[in-house]
Amino acid sequence: MNKIVFGVDVGGTTVKLGVFTADGTVIEKWEIPTRTEESGSHILPDVAESILRKIDEMGYDKENIIGVGIGTPGPVQPNGVVRRAVNLGWGYMNLVEILENLVGLPVKAGNDANVAALGEMWKGGGQGFSDIVAVTLGTGVGGGVIVQGKLVAGATGSGGEIGHINVEENEEEACGCGCKGCLEQYSSATGVVRLARKRLAMDDKPSMLREGELSARSIWDAVKAGDEVAIEVAERFGHYLGKCLAGVAAVVNPEAIVVGGGMSKAGEIMFEYIKPAYQRFSFHATKDVQFKLAQLGNDAGIYGAAKLVIGDK
Ligand SMILES: [Zn+2]
Description:
Elements: E1 4-10, E2 14-21, E3 26-33, H1 37-40, H2 43-58, E4 65-72, E5 81-82, E6 93-94, H3 95-103, E7 107-111, H4 112-123, E8 132-137, E9 141-147, E10 150-151, H5 184-187, H6 189-202, H7 216-224, H8 228-252, E11 256-260, H9 269-281, E12 290-293, H10 300-310
Parallel strand pairs: 1-4, 4-7, 8-11, 11-12
Antiparallel strand pairs: 1-2, 2-3, 5-6, 8-9, 9-10
Helix pairs in contact: 2-3, 4-10, 6-8, 7-8, 8-9
The chain binds zinc ion.
Zinc ion (ZN) binds near residues 164, 177, 182 and 184.
């Protein structure tokens, strides 16, 4: 009997689960709701119940199961401790210990963006590389750094928090983290909308963006249509992101930078705006990095979680 492994990605509204073979072929994937009520105390028991039911359905013995990997929002310390995950209602707890007790299998846990980066390296846009930086451009900017095949989670599980690197000293508005001038205030999907709104308020220059609802999608559509105001917004987005990634590259020297998240649906055109700043600000020996689009979409988390527990096996 081939060994199997579970990958779990806990989001604010749904928990995604997947069961994989050890070489990373997905056997089945499904979702359950994230019950955040009562301080999120049902989430892990729900996950455990769903996994145990699936094991039963599939007729597997526990000895043929490698374990359960799980990605959750917010920092996860290497020992499995989560101090706080606001959108799940969680306070201080040892996530790994609790889930191991519930499922009776080995458990490995990590931050969701870190885990997604691992998934992309294993089976997505970062395949074939062992040193990557992944950025997820969604509501915020998530990040994951992988050096020689290993995730850099850091001392408190905050490794790869690229979205909270300061890129602008003269910012008046605060980021969700409390600081002012974080990358995600400019280069996330919400960040580009904010940049566009500010740009539109500056003058009356005609733009497609003045009609209809402003969204990351409408901005990139306008860029593709040659809209000058939208292009200015894209240039600022790319300036901040490219410069920031040049700094990250000087530290970890990746082979590839994998860009994912909802906004990456805009496609390769984003790279035309990120690369000039990257080239301008990067150290000479890091300049030939490859920019790649993420490929796994919302499944990156379950793939990466599975890989987390497989390790180098
Ligand atoms: Zn921040």
